[in-house]
Design a protein that fits this description.
The chain has 445 residues and is of the alpha/beta class. The protein folds into four domains: 50 residues, no CATH class; 112 residues, Immunoglobulins (Immunoglobulin-like, Sandwich); 73 residues, no CATH class; 174 residues, Rossmann fold (3-Layer(aba) Sandwich). The longest helix has 34 residues.
């Protein structure tokens, strides 16, 4: 039984369109008049079908728009947040509109920002959870004073958000807001809390150090300080002390100057000459006072020499050549290299090793550590340089501060280890709770 032309066309047009189905239908028909009928039916159906496919949903104006003074800032900015919409796709765009207070016509507002509708979320602002004013998937934009927008504190403005797709555009409600400066930045409240906790740990550690002795692991390079100065005393040769290549702004130079005070005190006790050549005049002046105080504390202020600290030059290799010459002429029995060093490190230590001196180095310059380890008898690595003063003096304040720092580092390392484990569990189990924990730690850090 032969099918009717209309039934064949309708069957071939289901659901996918059907140019291929329509051609197959044409081949299955024998009479010529059916071809004409099918062509007419195809034209009618095809003319209606694309209109149904291409038809777009009507644009929806941005909902739940909120405009307010940006919290926790210095002023001259407004924050706009709004709920995600059904047309949040890359082919649609949001526009942030700004104008003077009292405007009611959206066409009088100026477009200060335009971006794809699937961007600019609260989660991208990286706000901590205690100041986050909306859900992470809400849209978020901050209007700041600049070239595109002129904002002044205390002046009201009208703000709106528009949705644009193709030639269509719809504008949300017009809202007024006034930018103002804020006294306190609650976004960094975690820094205040962590700082107070750290100070509390340090104060408790100092109190414990005053009541009892605090254990410090043995550092061979610092234990050898007395040995090096004693050997110089026995041989009747001076002690050479270098404070590095940086000035007093660098923490390693400050640590080197503090250690100099301990070395100078021992040298004064042993009545051994001390030589401290410098590259920076300010560092030289500071070290002169430290050395003078060390001799005074040792009870031998008369042995102090003003020229024990002397300035050579700020040039790197001129200073290196001068110090090498001092080593070859004076032949000090103990050389101390404390602070930051660069290419001159190996030139200095090789010369010192050639004279047979005991060499003790300490630096936080990791690129020079291999050279110090190779050519020196003892090397303080990294933060051992900063712990040296507390190790040598055994003063309660320094010991307690050092212990407090170690407790803080241990807490950070523990948080990192726990975070790694929790993140791994979240990836393996596809659970959501690990992400909440990781976000909490990330915000608090």
């Amino acid at each position: 039984m032969l099918n009717t032309p209309s039934s064949i066309v309708l069957a071939s047009f289901r659901p996918a369109t059907s140019l291929r189905g329509f051609v197959q239908a044409l081949h299955s028909l024998q009479p010529c008049w059916t071809v004409v009928v099918n062509i007419l039916l195809f034209i009618v159906v095809w003319g209606v079908f694309p209109a149904r496919v291409v038809a777009q949903e009507p644009l929806v104006a941005p909902a739940n728009v909120q405009v307010f003074d940006t919290p926790n800032d210095g002023g001259e900015s407004l924050t706009v947040i709004w709920a995600p919409g059904p047309a949040d796709r890359a082919d649609a765009r949001y526009q942030v509109l700004l104008g003077s207070a009292g405007l009611s016509d959206p066409t009088q507002l100026t477009t200060v920002a335009e971006f794809p509708a699937n961007t600019k979320f609260v989660k991208d602002a990286k706000l901590p959870w205690w100041t986050r004013g909306a859900e992470k998937h809400w849209h978020y934009y901050v209007i700041r004073n600049g070239k595109t927008a002129g904002l002044k504190d205390g002046t009201a403005y009208t703000v709106a958000v528009a949705m644009v797709q193709g030639d269509a555009r719809t504008v949300g409600p017009l809202i007024q807001a006034t930018p103002q400066p804020n006294w306190f930045n609650w976004n960094v409240l975690n820094n205040l809390v962590l700082a107070l906790l750290f100070f509390a740990v340090v104060f408790v550690s100092i109190a414990q150090a005053r009541r009892r002795d605090i254990f410090l692991r043995r550092i061979p390079g610092l234990d050898a300080v007395d040995e090096a100065i004693g050997r110089a005393t026995e041989l009747g040769k001076p002690v050479l002390y270098l404070t590095g290549a940086h000035d007093m702004h660098d923490p390693s130079t400050i640590a080197a100057a503090v250690i100099l005070g301990r070395v100078a005190k021992r040298a004064a006790a042993y009545e051994t000459d001390l030589m401290v050549p410098h590259r920076d005049p300010i560092t030289m002046a500071v070290c002169q006072e430290i050395t003078k105080q060390a001799y005074l504390e040792a009870g031998k202020p008369d042995l102090f020499k003003e020229d024990s600290n002397f300035f050579i030059t700020s040039d790197q290799f001129s200073y290196t050549a001068a110090v090498d010459g001092i080593m070859l002429r004076k032949k000090p029995a103990a050389n101390f290299y404390m602070g930051a060093y660069f290419a001159e490190a190996l030139l200095l230590t090789e010369t010192g090793a050639g004279t047979g001196a005991i060499q003790i180095a300490g630096t936080d310059s990791d690129h020079q550590l291999p050279f110090f380890v190779t050519t020196c008898d003892y090397t303080l690595i990294g933060e051992e340089l900063y712990a040296a003063s507390a190790y040598l003096s055994r003063e309660p304040v320094q010991l307690g501060t050092l212990r407090g720092q170690d407790i803080g580092k241990a807490a950070i390392l523990t948080a990192i280890a726990v975070g790694i484990v929790v993140a791994t569990v979240g990836v393996v189990s596809h659970a959501e709770w690990p992400q909440y924990f990781l976000d909490l730690v990330k915000d608090v850090k």
